[in-house]
Amino acid sequence: MQIKQIGVIGSGTMGSGIAQLLVQSDFATIMYDINEDILEKAKNSIFKRLDRLKEKERLTPDQWSKSKANLTLSSQIKDLQDCDLIIEVVPEKLELKKNIFKEVERICQQDAILATNTSSLSVTEIASSLNHSESVVGMHFFNPAPLMPLIEIIKGIKTAPEVIDQVMNFAKQLHKSPVLCEDTPGFIVNRVARPFYNEAIRIMKDQIASPEQIDTIMKKAGNFKMGPFELQDMIGIDVNFSSTKSVYQGFFGESRFRPNSYQERMVQAGILGRKTNKGFYDYE
Amino acid sequence: MSRINQVIIIGHNPIAKVLYEKCKRSGVSVFWNDLSQGINADVIIETENSNREEKKKAIQEIEAAVHPETTILSTVLRLPTTEIASWAQNPSRIVGFGTFATIERTGLVEIAPALQTNPSHLNESKGFFRMIGNVTEVVKDEVGLVFPRILAMIINEAAFALMENTADAASIDEAMKKGTNYPYGPLEWAEKIGLEDIYAILQGLFDQLGEERYRPASLIKKLIYAGWTGEKAQKGFYYYQNHLRGSEVSE
Fold first, then answer.
1. Which PANTHER family did the record assign (chain A) (predicted)?
2. Which one, out of B12, B108, B115, B131, has a CA that is 20 to 30 A from the CA of A235?
3. Average of per-residue pLDDT across B155-159
4. Longest dimension (CA), chain B
5. Is B93 near chain A, with CB under 8 Å?
């Protein structure tokens, strides 16, 4: 099967980023959301970004008009019935995702590929309530999706090998770098990056060095682009804390992933990083 | 702070060699594994990371050969500075430092006083690194200090992921470079540094802090037993993976 028509379910930051990437790569894309206002706003933001790309001459006028023509909006899930690939990008709530996939399975073609952009849930579990759980695969994009080169392709326990091959090839057609990963907590990036934050916080709480010192050291001794504390402030203390908790719980309390109580105190205090003007640093 | 005219470097591992080359380039008089001129030395660098008894012996031999007030810098990847100082007749002159043989590519070296260290020796240590072209950051004493410790923990996690076949080595490295902008993938980074130093930090943290969190991945230990310790040995995580794949094919 060749992937021609794609459906994107959800039009938040990630959903609209993925839809933009798809239309720019010249795939006919239907972006679906239940709320028509949100859908319209998402379309406007995609179009604005495409306009800027044309101004910067990163898109030719022809690519620009084709990209826009490739995008269709819908608030009716049955409009996704002819899609070869459906990418689900809704909030990280297991029941919500399972229910959406059940609906999708009812309307879509038998050989359609159903991809979830989950970063923290089990692909195997999301697929579990479907008749064709072998069609479900994880496609974990990184934000902003049009720019970040990586896509983690997650193989659920029941995912069919042909589905993996098709999705790997598809990611290459998007000019991305797909990496294949077993369905394990945090996949690769969110798992292997845990110590960058966890160990930095532990070192700070053990009074070995200050956040400023640790950031300086990691950049000047380790050549990291950003230090662990400035990066947490950018990501959001709450977002980072919930990633850590989810990997920790996913591995049944493996101590390498144990969060620090100080992260929870910061979240309780509403000190969430740049978005609140205060995190490990002040941004007033 | 006095002028540094003569430096002696003790140890056979890659960091000893790199520091020897850097000293030579800076124009200072430098001896490598030669304490015969010890009495004239201004700074001694001791670099054993893997074997506690050898490190202890090295510190004692250095103390027997040099002036009682000469600064001794010692690597603290495997042990805290305070433990190293506890073996010394004059513990106030022991200063810990933490860096890898990849120091050439990096500008910053962390140094840490023992609880017993006199500040004058800390200043002498800063002066030494300034002389060879490295800035310093003074942190509190703990095994692996900051960057070596955090990196070792990232590499340990990547090694667990590889060992469990979560993904192959190239995918793990690529994911960390392209998904989160790391300068190197953790497995290739470990091969550049040498697995012995990574293991020294993990085992050192595990011994010092006594927490399961720091247990080294069994795969790292096995690679060291096999001598597949990275670029220097021309074998490491990647060789292990391809070797295993090869043997699966031949079965």
1. 3-HYDROXYACYL-COA DEHYDROGENASE FAMILY PROTEIN, 3-HYDROXYBUTYRYL-COA DEHYDROGENASE
2. B108
3. 98
4. 66
5. no
Q: Does B150 touch chain A (CB under 8 A)?
A: yes
Helix (H, G, I), strand (E, B) or coil at B153: helix
A196 — alpha (psi -120 to 50), left (phi > 0) or beta? alpha
Q: Does A224 touch chain B (CB under 8 A)?
A: yes
Instruction: Label residues B121-151 b or e (16+ Cβ within 10 Å = b).
Output: bbebbbbbbebbebebbebbbbbbbbbbbbb
Instruction: Give me the percent of chain A exceeding a pLDDT of 70.
Output: 100
Angle between helices A228-235 and A237-250 (to 10 degrees): 100
Tell me the C-alpha distance between A75 and B196, whole Å: 58
Catalytic (active site) residue A152: yes
B104 confidence band (pLDDT: 50, 70, 90)? confident
Of A198, A213, A223, the CB nearest to B137: A213
Active site residue A119: yes
Q: Are A150 and A177 in contact (CB under 8 A)?
A: yes
Q: What is the pLDDT of residues B162-171, one digit of tens each?
A: 999 999 999 9
Which one of the listed residues A70, A120, A122, A190 is annotated catalytic?
A190
